Amino acid sequence: MSDIHPLAYVEKGAQIAQNVTIEPFATVKKNVILKAGAVIRSHAYLDGYTTIGERSVVFPGAAIGLKPQDLKYKGEKTFVEIGQDCSIREYVTINASCQEGSTVKVGDGSLIMAYCHLAHNCTVGKKVIMANGVQLAGHVQIEDYAVIGGMTPVHQFCRIGSYAMVGGFSAVSHDVPPYMLGAGYPFRLGGLNLVGLKRHRFSLEVRVELAKAFRLIYRSGLGLQKALKEMEKLQPFPEIVHLIEFCLSSKRGLIDLGGIVQRIPENRAAENKTEELLDER
Fold it and tell me: Strands 180-183, 188-192: parallel, antiparallel or unpaired by DSSP?
């Protein structure tokens, strides 16, 4: 049985599962879905086609599912999906997506700390930690287990790879590869996220191959395309394959040790075409 306070505002049509808690002065609009065990704290505001997963908690002042802050949005039907066991802290804003049928997603077990912002068309993987005040622009992708320090803005269309760590008060303007560590304004890589890899029990063999991959990309002087070819000779651990695929698909380009961007030329052309199509909408 759910515990819905009489001073909460729940519109007719909202789908409320078992064991949901809705505290006083929270607002749940008609198209919202709350799955079993979800908790909505006082003064949270849920709108649009928003789904809150099992046992996830939305803290006071958070606003989820309101229309995107994008002038191209024309009222199309879009979605927000929050996974299970997530913690959406105070005054977080997670906008609805932009473009018919698209979705803003937050993966299972993620912690989104106070005052963070997720704009339209963002995807956040599972077990991601975003510290206070992180600001994601539109179309940003954060992969599983990434950690982003507080007060860090991320430029639109950027990606932060799995198990990467971004220090606080940074400015991310290009892609941060998986398993890497960096910080700064402008953002600069510092090397592998060795502490994070050890904490997540990556084997020594995998860490050694990732270190070789790092040296090929950033210290060999080969250039990105040749470095990726050489990386294909490394042990084909899933982590190496993922790193190669991430780099090959980068459209924004990879940030370098000295703040210089490495990119594959045809991918830059693809990014420009994508942005042109969005501007035409």
Answer: antiparallel
